[in-house]
Design goal:
Blueprint lengths: L10 E4 L5 H12 L3 E6 L3 H13 L4 E5 L5 H15 L4 E4 L14 H23 L7 E5 L13 H21 L5 E7 L14 H7 L8 H12 L10 E4 L6
Parallel strand pairs: 1-2, 1-4, 2-3, 4-5, 5-6, 6-7
Helix pairs in contact: 1-2, 1-7, 3-4, 4-5
């Protein structure tokens, strides 16, 4: 784990960070010196475990129950983070979901869920955070390499929500750039998580599509997010940065 202090004095909020990529991001930002708010939907124990891990390493974190699709809960989580830590500098829109299946088989309820969490949730959290984010702050969304090029079957609606995040990132970067706030989109490829295990049914075609012929690790994504959140990335904005093992190469 990184132990530099490049984010000392900063406060970050990472949505959907009780497990997987989100937990790795929260832990890494804390290791780099940030105080971190962690939102979760149902995994209270998992979120508490991430907080404990951060505190054990000498960091500060709080867990906040907030479904990404619930505007009131997300707004409350932002307010609680600011009330607890005094400010907000970094928002990471990580909460996301996929329901892989052929589009014609998807129910309207499933499509609504994917849109509400992956896209509407980004809009809600970003708008809430922008009321507090200081000049020079960071907004980072976790998109997907399929938001630019879709090679994996069953992800058509999911890919469309991630493409929306890409364009939202570009537009917002221009709106807030005069304040020195950067807005970027980190696009993972196949990363080994509970939602997309490297040993799962969907893994074989995804591995075949990569240049490196393997899944990535959650820390690969967290490292890129930490860089974009840090001072060395101050001239990177409106960018979509892939960490996909060459899937889109």
């Amino acid at each position: 784990m990184s132990t530099n202090n490049k984010l000392a004095g900063k406060v970050a909020l990472v949505t959907g960070s009780s497990r997987g990529i989100g937990a790795a991001i929260a832990t890494r930002l804390a290791a780099d010196g940030a105080k971190v708010g962690i939102t979760y939907t149902k995994g209270a124990d998992a979120a508490a475990a991430v907080v404990k891990e951060i505190e054990r390493a000498g960091g500060k974190a709080i867990a906040l129950q907030a479904d990404a699709a619930d505007a009131a809960a997300v707004n409350a989580a932002v307010e609680k983070t600011v009330a607890t830590f005094g400010q907000l500098d970094i928002l990471v829109n990580n909460a996301g979901t996929a329901i892989p299946k052929p589009f014609v088989e998807a129910t309207l309820e499933e499509l609504d869920q994917v849109i509400d969490i992956n896209f509407r949730g980004v809009l809600i959290a970003t708008q809430a955070a922008l009321k507090h984010i200081k000049d020079g702050g960071r907004i980072i969304s976790i998109g997907s390499c399929v938001g630019e090029r879709i090679l994996t079957p069953g992800l058509t609606a999911y890919a469309a929500t991630k493409a929306a995040v890409k364009l939202f990132t570009q537009g917002l970067a221009r709106e807030v750039g005069s304040r020195g706030i950067t807005v970027n989109n980190v696009q993972p490829g196949p990363i080994d998580t509970d939602l997309n295990p490297a040993a799962g049914d969907w893994a074989t075609p995804q591995i075949a599509n990569t240049a490196l012929k393997r899944y990535g690790h959650v820390n690969d994504v967290a490292a890129l997010v930490a860089f974009v959140a840090g001072p060395e990335a101050s001239y990177i904005t409106g960018a979509s940065l892939t960490v996909d093992g060459g899937t889109n190469a």
